[in-house]
Amino acid sequence: MLKINGIYKHYKTDNNYKALNIGRDTETLEVMVIYQECYGFGDIWIRPLKMFMEILPDGIPRFGFIEVDI
What whole-number distance in Å separates Cα of residue 61 and Cα of residue 53? Predict the structure, then answer.
């Protein structure tokens, strides 16, 4: 389950991201994650929830939960 305000580490880049909220695509109604870089300019991104929470074939999560930002 996605934790809003949770900090997640991307498996490939090792960068941290904060899950800000969830929303829906206006055309497909697919559930999306709105998340922000915890580095650089703090860019905001969106990605399908299913992809954000995906466990890759080697058993590693695409975005691994680290902690909740208070």
Answer: 7
